[in-house]
TrEMBL record:
Coiled coil: none annotated. It comes from Ligilactobacillus murinus. This is 3-hydroxy-3-methylglutaryl coenzyme A reductase. Keywords: NAD, Oxidoreductase. Pathway: Metabolic intermediate metabolism; (R)-mevalonate degradation; (S)-3-hydroxy-3-methylglutaryl-CoA from (R)-mevalonate: step 1/1. The lineage of its organism: Bacteria, Bacillati, Bacillota, Bacilli, Lactobacillales. Belongs to the HMG-CoA reductase family. It catalyses: (R)-mevalonate + 2 NAD(+) + CoA = (3S)-3-hydroxy-3-methylglutaryl-CoA + 2 NADH + 2 H(+).
């Protein structure tokens, strides 16, 4: 595209000027991108072709008691009602003692994929015999992690096809998510294999399917806690359990069930400065581990209790990536009173389960729209141009008219402005 040659080499002001020159934006629009209150140097160092800071709201989820400790949880999301629902689900669980977490191990997996293999069984044996050497090479490539008590722990060899082998390296990455660390280790091992075993390496990279970094959270809720008006808690619990079974049987429902879980998970992962694409990819892959795409959480009624469980891979870092450089992320870690990455992983999983409980509870009782309505009407009011002081009047007008379309919202806004004008 004309004018965008070597765009990455230009400074930010020049990049913005080009947008005006090329008639992509007006000068006024470009001026609106320059907020003097924002530190724009950070973005320029983090990504390429940077033009401005995109803002997503951050709020706090309340009521999260996990392993006996109560947390204030920052969530970053653009979707109305996510934080309200997360807090509501957690409040139900809090009344029943809170969430319990389980983390067995925290190992990241990286792959070196060897192609054009002639005798896969023979090569697999040779690779296994080289475990000690490969672990040594991996650790030599990133010695600081060994000093921190981590490092390469195991290799696994998988024959994927007669001509393709994956050599998996398992690494204790301590407090990091570990992508860069693993990639450095893998490339060192790949280079050795290339020369020592005369293999053709296709690629070497971390796997986001972090099946050795699983987190499980559970909760037990007396069914009586679920009672809503005339609807008995026992009946609601049974319906939640059936909705959970449905998400195990039907991928159409499972996808939406898991989207709800990820509403909570992504929002905390973003607030904590972690890579949410990595978490999304791993979570959805884990949802297919039994051969078809299923709900990540399960709910069962046992005796007089509703028992919820969520297990998924959650390789999160308390250091590295943007964690160490974005001031708001550091502040969020302070709000969470984080001790380490494992604590973050259990918090994120608990939010996923709390979010899921709130969604299922709403779905099997009032339906999802009732709770969403007021927040969505607020967004609608803003979308048609209501100022902060006009929003609640527009929402009230829409509720009174039982309407939720933009034409009615605009009409109400005009009426409010007309009334204000007359009063002046
Ligand atoms: P970094 O490389 O940014 O940071 C990890 C580094 O932090 C370590 O190498 C270590 O360096 C330092 N560190 C300080 N204290 C500790 C500690 N207690 N435990 C462990 N490390 C510590 O990040 P990661 O390697 O974690 O990679 C995450 C980033 O990689 C994310 O930004 C992600 O988006 C990106 N990424 C993701 C990919 C994927 O998911 N497929 C692929 C490629 C990149 P030192 O010892 O030298 O101090």
């Amino acid at each position: 595209m004309n004018g965008f040659n070597k765009y990455y080499q230009k400074d930010r002001q020049t990049r913005l000027d080009i947008l005006v020159q090329q008639k992509k934006l007006t000068q006024a629009e470009v001026d609106s991108l320059i907020d003097p209150k924002l530190d724009l140097t950070l973005g320029d160092t983090m990504i390429e072709n940077f033009i401005t800071q995109y803002q997503i709201p951050e709020g706090l989820a309340l009521n999260y008691v996990i392993d006996g400790k109560e947390y204030l949880i920052p969530m970053v999301t653009e979707e109305p009602s996510v934080i309200a629902a997360a807090s509501h689900g957690a409040a139900i669980v809090k009344r029943s003692g809170g969430f319990t977490s389980e983390l067995k191990e925290r190992l990241m997996i990286g792959q070196i994929v060897i192609e054009q293999v002639k005798d896969a069984t023979k090569l697999a044996q040779e690779l296994e015999q080289k475990q000690a050497k490969l672990l040594q090479l991996a650790n030599e490539a990133h010695p600081s992690i060994v000093c921190r008590g981590g490092g390469a722990r195991e290799i696994k060899v998988r024959i994927l096809a007669p001509d393709l082998i994956s050599l998996d390296l398992l690494v204790d990455v301590k407090e990091a998510m570990g992508a860069n660390m693993l990639n450095t280790m893998l490339e060192a091992c790949a280079s050795y294999l290339r020369t020592e075993l005369d293999t053709e390496i296709l690629l070497s990279i971390l796997s986001n399917y972090a099946t050795r970094c699983l987190v499980k959270v559970t909760c037990e809720i007396p069914v009586s806690e679920l009672t809503k008006g005339e609807l008995a808690g026992e009946k609601i619990a049974q319906k939640i359990a059936t909705a959970s079974r449905l998400a195990q049987l039907d991928p159409y429902r499972a996808t939406t069930h898991n989207k709800g879980i990820m509403n909570g998970i992504d929002a905390v992962v973003i607030a904590s400065g972690n890579d949410w694409r990595a978490i999304e990819a791993g979570a959805h892959a884990y949802a297919t581990r039994n051969g078809s795409y299923q709900g990540l959480s399960t709910w069962q009624v046992k005796g007089d209790k509703l028992i919820g469980e969520l297990e998924l891979p959650l390789p999160l870092g308390s250091v590295g990536g943007s964690v160490s450089i974005v001031p708001l992320v550091k502040l969020n870690h302070r709000l969470l009173e984080l001790q380490d990455a494992k604590e973050l992983e259990k918090i994120v999983a608990a939010v996923g389960l709390g979010q899921n409980l709130a969604a299922l509870y709403a779905l099997v009782t009032d339906g999802i729209q009732k709770g969403h309505m007021k927040l969505q009407l607020k967004s609608l009011a803003v979308a048609v141009g209501a100022s902060p002081s006009e929003v609640s009047a527009v929402v009230a007008g829409l509720l009174a008219k039982k309407a939720r379309d933009s034409a009615t919202a605009k009409q109400i806004l005009e009426e409010i402005r007309g009334n204000d004008h007359e009063q002046k």
